[in-house]
């Protein structure tokens, strides 16, 4: 299997990474080398094998549905102090709706 | 002082032979002298470290000493530390000053250890040579034309050059064990879930695990005592009774302390593909283990050869999801020019991430996309199960598995940087351990052409104390772990 330039552009769009034509070309070569390595998996018969998502077979822990954070404003201020752009406790991004 | 074990340093602090301020100052001075060459530290803040050392001295004066009180420790720049710049080796987080502490950092603070600085690493821990760091490569203290390994390359170089008594790292596919091997250190990746991942910047969440890098297995055990423990803020943290990982080290055991231990030697580790001189050193270490009373048994891990392929589906898939958070909205880098929201995202990510990180995000996005999920992601997860089953079968025949950590000693800067597949294959002996979630340890076992080689010990789940003891017994009768690169006397 090998990827096409169009697929590289499509995946880059899905991943929200701007990619120039020159970058797409060089990326295509690298990705095809990597997929050649990955392809050796395809020869293995894994029918009936349960997929393993995780090393430990854990159930999600639950907790009581109650407020545990008591310093919300201080936290918000600390976390927003490092944001690129905020106003009145909100994160600012370019206008989405006209 | 810089050659003393962590335990001996703690005794020197308790006995007023040296203060924490003096000890911290000694290392800060060594960092100032040697870091311009090595580039092992990304952030050093002498005033902040010395302020912590003063607090440690007050604590020592009150007689409230723990095993690490007053001892400076360097932390991989993947651990968020409050008010410290935390970059993860990326331009994306070049301006990120963390508003909170990772669990690992909190635990060292609570023990009274001094935060000596933040160490260089491959960008978002994606790399095996430390060359993907946005802040430049780290040099190997044993040969400055060579890489220190990665991704915890800065931590490994710092400890090997005696710029820090010990350091933390993280290991997703070998990122503690491989740099430990290439820099002549002892480094452990514990069982998945033993150390909290809270505040540890995520790469591949089902594989990432923190661990210690130090000059001996005994030092690693002390560090693990501080790092391990349940944390409800990490949903995969294991709620187990606390352990003393040093508990087996003190016993005498006589001349054959490892009598009754069965060491498994998987054919796949010894089937070629490894540098011959490295392999000879591994064989010599195994001979040493037989002298210590251990038995050896040859066995097979038939699916291990598939581990690199499965890993380069699973880890990028998880990474593509984890790294979606870097979008220029809440923290980190934002592209200076854009017309709309989509362009802000895609330019921020194009400019903020380096080539290797982008490659892995693209691989991950592709293998998770419609039409490819079953062929790649599901298949990789099934192979992951086969690999874990191989280990389970092996541990019915032996107590631990031994082999090389890395197929070579440290390679030259630039040697593999242009060829991702060659770089990926340098983790061929370490990756399977992460897929299965097992504990693994690398210890130095000699020198090939002047560069350190590593012996890997792999144990069953929760066998850290046993692994550390078996490594410690080897270090009682050999001296490879005490070697120091000449340029850093």
CATH architecture annotation of the domain at 5-42 in chain A: Orthogonal Bundle
Name of the top-level CATH class of the domain at 6-257 and 440-488 in chain B = Alpha Beta
Largest sheet of chain A: 2 strands, antiparallel
| Portion in strands of chain B | 5-15%
Strand order of the largest sheet of chain A: 1-2
Helix content of chain B: 25-40%
Give a count of the beta strands of chain B, DSSP E runs of length 2 or more: 11
Low-confidence region ranges of chain A = none
Order of helices and strands of chain B: HHEHEHEHEHEEHEHEHHHHEHHEEH
Write a concise synopsis of the structure shown.
In chain A, 38% of the residues lie in helices and 4% in strands.
Describe the protein's architecture and organization:
- The complex is a heterodimer of chains A (98) and B (489).
- Helices cover 38% and strands 4% of the residues of chain A.
- With 98 residues, chain A is mainly alpha-helical.
- Chain A has a domain of 38 residues: Orthogonal Bundle (Histone, subunit A).
- In chain A, strands 1-2 form a two-stranded antiparallel ribbon.
- Chain A starts with a helix and ends in a 7-residue tail after the last strand.
- By secondary structure, chain B is α/β, with parallel strands linked by helices.
- Chain B has a domain of 301 residues: Amidase signature (AS) enzymes (Alpha-Beta Complex), CATH 3.90.1300.10.
- Chain B is 38% helix and 13% strand.
- In chain B, strands 4-6-5-10-11-9-7-8 form an 8-stranded mixed β-sheet, sandwiched between helices. In chain B, strands 1-3-2 form a 3-stranded mixed β-sheet, sandwiched between helices.
- In chain B, strand 2, helix 4 and strand 3 form a beta-alpha-beta unit.
- The mean pLDDT of chain B is 97.
- The chains are: A mainly alpha (98), B alpha/beta (489).
- At the A-B interface, helix 1, helix 2 and helix 3 of A face helix 9, helix 10, helix 11, helix 12 and helix 13 of B.
């Amino acid at each position: 299997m090998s990827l096409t330039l169009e697929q590289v552009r499509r995946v880059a769009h899905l991943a929200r990474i701007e990619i120039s034509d020159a970058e797409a070309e060089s990326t295509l070569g690298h990705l095809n080398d990597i997929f050649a390595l990955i392809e050796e998996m395809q020869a293995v018969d894994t029918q009936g094998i349960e997929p393993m998502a995780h090393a430990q077979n854990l159930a999600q822990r639950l907790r009581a549905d109650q407020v545990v954070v008591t310093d919300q404003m201080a936290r918000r201020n600390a976390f927003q102090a490092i944001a690129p752009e905020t106003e009145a406790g909100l994160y600012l991004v370019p206008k989405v709706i006209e | 002082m810089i050659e003393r074990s962590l335990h001996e340093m703690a005794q020197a602090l308790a006995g007023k032979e040296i203060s924490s301020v003096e000890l911290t100052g000694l290392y800060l001075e060594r960092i100032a002298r040697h870091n311009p060459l090595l580039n092992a530290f990304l952030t050093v803040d002498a005033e902040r470290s010395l302020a912590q050392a003063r607090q440690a001295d007050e604590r020592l004066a009150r007689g409230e000493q723990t095993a690490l009180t007053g001892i400076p420790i360097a932390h991989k720049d993947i651990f968020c530390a409050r008010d410290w710049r935390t970059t993860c080796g990326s331009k994306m987080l070049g301006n990120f000053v963390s508003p909170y502490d990772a669990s690992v950092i909190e635990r060292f603070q609570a023990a009274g250890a001094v935060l000596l600085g933040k160490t260089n690493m491959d960008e978002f821990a994606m790399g095996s040579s430390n060359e993907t760091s946005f802040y430049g490569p780290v040099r190997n203290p044993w040969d400055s034309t060579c890489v220190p390994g990665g991704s915890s390359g800065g931590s490994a170089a710092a400890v090997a050059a005696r710029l820090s008594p010990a350091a933390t790292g993280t290991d997703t596919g070998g990122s503690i064990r491989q740099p430990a091997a290439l820099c002549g250190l002892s480094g452990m990746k514990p069982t998945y879930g033993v150390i909290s991942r809270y505040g540890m910047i995520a790469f591949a969440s089902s594989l990432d695990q923190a661990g210690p890098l130090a000059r001996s297995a005994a030092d690693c055990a002390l560090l693990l005592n501080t790092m391990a423990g349940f944390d409800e803020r990490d949903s995969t943290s294991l709620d187990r009774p606390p352990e003393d990982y040093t508990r087996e080290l003190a016993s005498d055991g006589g001349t054959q302390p490892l009598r009754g231990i069965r060491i498994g030697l998987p054919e796949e580790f010894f089937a070629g593909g490894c540098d011959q001189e490295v392999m000879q050193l591994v064989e010599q270490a195994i001979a040493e283990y037989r002298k210590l009373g251990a038995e050896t048994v040859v066995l097979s891990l038939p699916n291990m050869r598939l581990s690199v392929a499965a890993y380069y589906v699973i880890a990028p898939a998880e990474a593509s999801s984890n790294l979606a958070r870097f979008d220029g909205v809440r923290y980190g880098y934002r592209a200076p020019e854009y017309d709309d929201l989509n362009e802000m995202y895609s330019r921020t990510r194009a400019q903020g991430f380096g080539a290797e990180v982008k490659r892995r995000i693209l691989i991950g996005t592709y293998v998770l996309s419609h039409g490819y999920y079953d062929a790649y992601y599901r298949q990789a997860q099934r192979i992951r199960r086969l690999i874990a089953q191989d280990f389970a079968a092996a541990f019915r025949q032996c107590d631990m598995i031994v082999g090389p950590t890395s197929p070579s000693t440290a390679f030259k800067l630039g040697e593999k940087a242009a060829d991702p597949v060659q770089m990926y294959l340098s983790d061929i002996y370490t990756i399977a351990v992460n897929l299965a979630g097992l504990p693994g340890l690398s210890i130095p076992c000699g020198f090939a052409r002047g560069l350190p080689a590593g012996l890997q010990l792999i144990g069953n789940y929760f066998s850290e104390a046993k692994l550390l003891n078996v490594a410690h017994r080897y270090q009682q009768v050999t001296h490879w772990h005490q070697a120091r690169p000449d340029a850093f006397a």
